[in-house]
Design goal:
Layout (H helix, E strand, L loop, with lengths): L5 E8 L7 H14 L4 E5 L7 H4 L8 E3 L2 E3 L1 E4 L10 E5 L15 H14 L5 E7 L6 H13 L5 E8 L3 H17 L3 E12 L6 E2 L6 H9 L3 E7 L1 H9 L10 E2 L2 E2 L5 H6 L10 H5 L4 H22 L1
Parallel strand pairs: 1-7, 1-8, 2-6, 2-7, 8-9, 9-11
Antiparallel strand pairs: 3-4, 5-6, 9-10, 12-13
Helix pairs in contact: 1-10, 3-4, 5-6
Length: 310
């Protein structure tokens, strides 16, 4: 079993599509890495594998090794900077072209999920985050059955459930929480994503999708709200173009000043400069980094408590 040396496995779940599971997975992985942990990300969203694009490694190819597949490195460990290694595996690396459709029936999806869980050579690793498709379908059932059968209770730490604030989203995500209850997967907490919009041209953070739906749902189920995450266009620009996030004076996110541009900078076009650095280094300047640091701290605490109570 390729997961033998993985200390903690965390599932990223949601009953609703389009709530930003892959974005949450990506930022949680970067935050864990910045906290010094070695991290793996397994993308089992077979019909919409977006993790390779999120990490800017779409052109990478999987290497076959004796006993299985080697995950794709995003960056190596840097002990002097306190950064842990980050590796990724996704069906997206195995498709001939980015736009190729995966038209598979349930049994083939189930077999692929099980192969990912058994044939990827992760080695020693602190955290493995598993990004899942929306819903409670074949992939989820196969995933949970295999993990419950082939891992220890200490390894399967639990799930982070992602929602957006609207009632139409939380109604579907509640089904995911019921799925976890029925399958015996512990819920570490809820992330309310898209809770506000950080304007790239001013200091305003506007709640365009309302707010508080995630907290209300978490309260109803007696689970923890890990945090609320606004939409930040600068994060998307960083992912798509490789530019380091830069913010106008007065930009406040969750009460923290994220300003990096002066009036002179905005008029001189300094924000157009590309930065060739690693994604994990650029992410430090993103307004969402402190938000996810807090979420990551909550997840680590919940995982440690889960291991103690197992």
């Amino acid at each position: 079993m390729s997961l033998t040396k993985v200390k903690h496995i965390v599932l990223i779940l949601s009953g609703k599509g389009g709530v930003g599971k892959s974005s949450v997975t990506t930022q949680l992985a970067l935050s864990l890495s910045l906290a010094g942990h070695s991290v793996g990300v397994l993308d089992i969203d077979l019909t919409g594998p977006s993790i390779p694009r999120m990490f800017g490694i779409e052109d990478s190819k999987v290497t076959q090794a004796p006993g299985g597949w080697l995950p794709i490195p995003v960056h190596e460990a840097n002990p002097s900077a306190g950064v842990g290694a980050l590796r990724v595996m996704s069906l997206g690396f195995l498709l001939p072209k980015r736009g190729d459709a995966v038209v598979w029936r349930g049994p083939k999806k189930t077999a692929m999920v099980r192969q990912f869980l058994t044939d990827v050579l992760w080695g020693e690793m602190d955290y493995l985050l598993i990004d899942t498709p929306p819903g409670t379908s074949d992939e989820h059932i196969s995933l949970v059955e295999t993990l419950l059968k082939d891992t220890t209770p200490e390894q399967l730490a639990g799930a982070v459930v992602v929602t957006t604030p609207q009632a139409v989203a939380t109604a579907d995500v509640r089904k995911e929480l019921n799925f976890c209850a029925k399958t015996g997967v512990k819920v570490l907490g809820v992330v309310e994503n898209m809770s506000g919009f950080v304007c790239p041209n001013c200091s305003e953070c506007t709640h365009i999708f309302m707010q508080g739906g995630g907290r209300a749902m978490a309260d109803d189920f007696g689970i923890k709200l890990l945090g609320s995450v606004p939409i930040d266009p600068q994060f998307l620009v960083m992912i798509e173009t490789g530019k380091r996030p830069r913010y106008p004076a007065g930009t406040l996110v969750n009460g923290q000043d994220m300003s990096t541009l002066t009036i002179q900078d905005t008029t001189s076009g300094a924000d157009e400069t590309r930065d060739p650095g690693l994604l994990v280094e650029k992410y430090k300047d993103c307004s969402l980094a402190p938000v996810f640091k807090s979420i990551t701290d909550e997840v680590i605490t919940a995982v440690e408590q889960s291991g103690t109570s197992s």
